Amino acid sequence: MRKNKINPDSQKNNNNNILNQQLLNLLKYKLYPPPAGCLYENPKINQNLNFSSLEPILSKGKKILVGDGSFSKVFLYQHKISKIKYAIKVININSFMQKTNNKNLILDEINIQSKIFHPNIIRLFNYFKDKKNIYLILEFASKGTLFDYIHYKKGLDEAEAFYYFIQSVNSVSFLHKNKIIHRDIKPENLLINSNNILKLCDFGWSVYLHSNKRVTFCGTVEYMAPEIVKNEGYDFSIDVWSLGVLLYELIHSHSPFVVKDLNINEIENNILSKELRFKKGVSLECRDLIEKLLVKDAKNRIKIEDIYNHPFILKYINMMNGALKLSQINKYRPDINNNNKKQIEDDLEINKEKEENSKKEINEEIKESFSEFDTIPTEPEAAKIVVNFDKIIRQFTKIDNQNINNKKQRKIRNK
Predict the structure, then answer these.
(1) CA torsion sign, 116 to 117 to 123 to 124?
(2) Per-residue pLDDT tens for 3-43?
């Protein structure tokens, strides 16, 4: 039986439609221009959301494990009445103290994450402890880690890489503006929710930086900046370096410094001396941004605020504006057959003016939405800051929800 030939033009149009949908998703959930976010000086923890109001979701009679670490496990729970899902991070106190001998790490994690409200950061709703464990009630991101998604697709094209990268930049930029270094940016700590919105998580290594540089050797080896490897003082620029490794991995499905046997010394030598190599087809703009992010001298590394003005980013921002314009034209398309071109032009001008006004009001709208989180939410957090584009998009990326078993092991060395 003869196979149908694929029309290259048709396939190209389909790819363009998917790209337009992705870009419009950034506008729909107010992720561009970069959201202002909020840092509570005195966080209002939700006292109504406690352990007794939740119940575990079971599979074959056992709690569903959605993540684990060196001294913690994350289980899937739901609210008994609303049925909203939450992730409960259970930290064993004895195990934590044996491996870190530093109670300030968990205290810093709680202190920082409880104050943060940003659409690209996992929210901490409440926390408490018993004699054995510390419990964190966290926002649940149903589609798992960005790491799994990258390796499921064996690397992303540049357009989709941009979509996830710009959201990562949003979250890190917000932290830096509030004097917080994350210190462990990697795909395993970036989660995807049901609306395909990226969420930064795991603040176990996060600290405030007000003046003096930090010297703690920490993080994940493949994502460590040269100044950490050399045991030098470091500042916010280590997170910028990690963003460079992230963008490289989004496209290549592996970090630029990894070695087959994950030998720590070899990885560190690569970080200090290896030249970047790119696969065929990576655009000049993308290569240039990665190279600027991965400058070995921290003083000459691109600043996080300058990332938004890089040609690689601006290329897709311009496409996003075009996608928005196209969606507006499609909305009025039936009128074309009636020769109402003047009406179409007038409507588009009105719509354009409304959109410009909407962008100016974004920060105010987000600030006003903060008060809505003082009680148990009745819908996913991201939906509370939605801009109504009348069904511009539906879910644009289908992620296989089955377990992906090709996750590699990252080696972590603490000092």
Answers:
(1) positive
(2) 444 344 444 555 667 777 888 888 888 888 888 888 877 66
239 is catalytic: no
Instruction: Give the CA dihedral 248, 215, 270, 145, nearest 10 degrees.
Output: -30
Sequence letter at residue 369: S
Greater confidence, 339 or 140? Answer: 140
Of 27, 34, 20, the C-alpha closest to 308 is 34
Give the tokens for residue 332. Answer: 């009025």
Catalytic residue among 184, 297, 306, 390: 184
User: pLDDT tens digits for 75-109?
Assistant: 999 999 999 999 999 999 988 888 787 888 888 89
Burial class of residue 21 in the structure, from the number of CB atoms within 10 Å of its CB (0-12 exposed, 13-18 middle, 19+ buried): buried
The phi-psi region of residue 315 (left if phi > 0; otherwise alpha if psi is between -120 and 50; otherwise beta) is alpha
The pLDDT tens digits for 154-177 are 999 999 999 999 999 999 999 999
Contact residues for 277 (Cβ-Cβ < 8 A; gap 6+):
256
Residue 391: left (phi > 0), alpha (psi -120 to 50), or beta? left
Question: Cα separation of 235 and 97, whole Å?
Answer: 26
Between these two residues, 49 and 314, which has the higher pLDDT value?
314
pLDDT of residue 399: 36
